[in-house]
Amino acid sequence: EIGAAAGVAGTGWVVWRALPESVLLAPLHTARVQALQHAAVVIAVLAVLTLLLVRQLLEPLRRLEERARRLFDASQGIHEGWPADRGEIGSLAQALRHVGAERAQLEQFTGELVGKLGSVMAAAPLGIAFTRDQRFELVSRTWCHLLQREESELLGTRAAEAFASEDDYARVGPQVARAFAAGERYEGEWRFRRRDGSLFWGQLCGQPVEMGNPVAGTIWTLADVTASRASREDLEWSATHAPLTGLANRKAFLQ
Known about the structure:
Elements: E1 2-8, E2 13-19, H1 21-69, H2 87-123, E3 127-132, E4 135-139, H3 141-147, H4 151-154, H5 166-181, E5 186-193, E6 199-208, E7 218-224, H6 226-240, H7 250-254
Antiparallel strand pairs: 1-2, 3-4, 3-7, 5-6, 6-7
């Protein structure tokens, strides 16, 4: 209890009063509870307003993220779907839009270049192939025609399968390496195998895409020289043999 005393003037009396502490402090407790309730309401309202404000502020960023995920989506226009905002988000959106526009132009240029390359390879009288890690990654129509195989059969297969034997392929490797190491392109005649098992002589020429960088791959050309090789051998034989008897002539005898 809380006790209080007060004198009454002119009477000599003293009045004492005793009240329970809970009764005396009840208004204070009530005010404190009400203050906490009001504070909770104010905090809740401020929290909701803050969340709404943050969401509003982050909405351009969310839209920017969604549009950035579809940056390379061809179904949507390059300048569509970007948030119209100022500040850093607007600058970032403008930069990404510029990147998307440059990529679209690059894809268009690459598509045109690939189309032209395909036309050149289709019209070239020589077989053209691109290999990397000793496997075919690109072959022309003429190359397929020389080997009597479809493009799908050659892509991804080992380049050794085009040669007449594994021994020939093992021998051509060091020659190609020496030519490339000297900064020169490789040229040589080797036997190649068609699908039906028949062989033909082919003039093989190769050059690396990047000198000193074998990882970049190699460009090859192939021409059927079976007829010219036979004619050359006939000329060489005729130069050293008599056509009537087939015997070595005087020049060959003296040698």
